[in-house]
Amino acid sequence: xxxxxxxxxxxxxxxxxxxxxxxxxxxxxxxxxxxxxxxxxxxxxxxxxxxxxxxxxxxxxxxxxxxxxxxxxxxxxxxxxxxxxxxxxxxxxxxxxxxxxxxxxxxxxxxxxxxxxxxxxxxxxxxxxxxxxxxxxxxxxxxxxxxxxxxxxxxxxxxxxxxxxxxxxxxxxxxxxxxxx
Length: 181
What we know:
Blueprint: H1 7-10, E1 17-18, E2 31-36, E3 41-46, E4 48-53, E5 59-65, E6 71-79, H2 86-103, E7 109-118, E8 121-130, E9 138-146, E10 150-159, H3 163-175
Antiparallel strand pairs: 1-6, 2-3, 4-5, 5-6, 6-10, 7-8, 8-9, 9-10
């Protein structure tokens, strides 16, 4: 990635906290608005929000801590010196795919991507799953957004048996996001 933000910085190490969801056919919890103060970007996360800053990193992470250990949500905002391009979003997706593969025991991974826009910003959606996984294997939904001076990522990961919850949680998180003009 340009501007000193590497793909590794965009995929924070071991950064998925346990969560559960509120609306959309999943158990109810309190959803909390998380605001990345430097950028003003807001998102709703299920449960208590834990901000994490890495010293010297242009990225800030926000995760939710709830009681369900099978679904995790992470919201990341990285400052960029130049406007990220779609190719930067693909580079980040490749980094996430590599991390997912390693986290799943270096097994074969299925992935699908879709280029789109969110609120006029270039966006890339990524879905990951293990090819031969059972109910305990991992699945993931990712959204990468490039605004004028930030790289934004929403990562939702779950056990395959919790894919319905993952889909509902991820959909709510990405639709409730607000990027200031």
